Amino acid sequence: MPANSTRLKCLDYNRLPKRIDSPAQSPAVKEYPLTCFSPLTPYMATHPPYGIFKIGIPNMKVLQSWKATYNPNYAMSITRESLSDHMLNLLRRELEDIFYETAAINIRLTDFFKHRWFHMGATPGVMPYFSQPRLPINYFLHQYNHLPEYFNKQLVVYFETSKFDRQIGRYIFREWLRLHHGRPPFQRHNFPAMAVCFTCPQGPPSVQQIVPFHRGFCNRLSERVDDPVDFYARYRLKVKNPDEYSSFGSWPMPSTEFLSWKEHGFALGHLFRSIFMVVDDQVRDGNSRTPFPLEMTPEESNGLTLPALMVLLVRTGDDAHLSDPIDFWPLHEAGQTFEINRSDFRGCAEGWVVRVRLDVALQFIFDLIHREEKALPHIRQAAEKLEEERDEGCKQWVERVLAHAREVGVDSNGFTWHGIRRAQARLHGDIFDNVQSERPWEHLTHWDH
Questions:
Q1: Rg of the chain over all Cα atoms, to the nearest angstrom
Q2: Strand, helix or coil at 162?
Q3: What is the distance between the alpha carbons of residues 354 and 338, in angstroms, rounded to a whole number?
Q4: Which residues pair with 229 in a beta bridge?
Q5: What is the pLDDT of residue 19?
Q6: Cα angle at 173 between 169 and 174, to 5 degrees?
Q7: Cis omega before residue 48 (within 30°)?
Q8: At what angle are helices 377-408 and 358-375 packed, to 10 degrees?
């Protein structure tokens, strides 16, 4: 790497001590198993920055096998060196897109998305479930390896039915991507929502039961934010040579210091205490009168079905920390609410529960987030810091890839080979790869691409 290139601010392996006290000796420090890619560290740092192949232009046989993936009009061309300033800028833009697309595609394959939005009743490893609307006192101690999944979310989606569980998760994912123009801050498990299901033998809990459950849920979770955590415990005991950690290729890596979850950047989302969503057995009512053409693909059908699903939004009354109380009246005024139609709603205070379409509910949440960021400096600054960190990771990755390409040639680095052909295709109003046309990070039918 050239001397003047930006050094990636990942893990400083030279600072890792050879060992620490065992958990028995330091019971206050909790271990959390860190992997080289996860929703905690979801962006590429790339070591080394080769991409889809190492050194050398792919031969004709390889390119022929890629016909289903790449446009042969550009795949078999050879890039002229050196690039004009205009082409270099286009290449940078394509590399930035590849950076964020790769994060969005890969993060969908992690457990939090593939499994935690899967309602299978009382089945470990899938959606968190409760057999009664009462939170066990030590719940988050027993769920410690999943603790980050509960932080940095804006609301809980409580499922009283298994209908549309994964599809709702994928729809939220797609809308969040679009809200951020394909570049949301994924790091440290940031996501708008998490899923929880009730599997009560006596039937779904009432809204009046879910509200105190949710308050207890938030209180128990907030008790854990000050717990000190060690992300590198398993490596500190084994490390002999810092080079052994070169496989870490993700951004941003957490600090090696013994800090609390809060100091590492994990906390309850700003809206988390104040509002939640309920998916009940009336979720499909909004689509029962909407006929769809028979020739639709599953993806097209989901694109029409999911926004029109019916959900409940519930205020908890815990909103003293907000700039203003949450108010559902604008939804009523706009004619966007529907009959609640639940016997347990009787007795609930007016204005505390509404039934709306899923797309309306999400837009309401996104508007609340925007309102709070605009009104409260500390919320706005936290959001800006996340975006700056995300953009810094992208910038450093692009510069590192380009530095390697300058050493070996644009066509001998996998990322620049890919990016320059996408740029050439875009100049001709064309596309180079099927990822650009299929946009797998927005799929509603499945998490996999």
A1: 24
A2: coil
A3: 7
A4: 30, 259
A5: 31
A6: 120
A7: yes
A8: 100
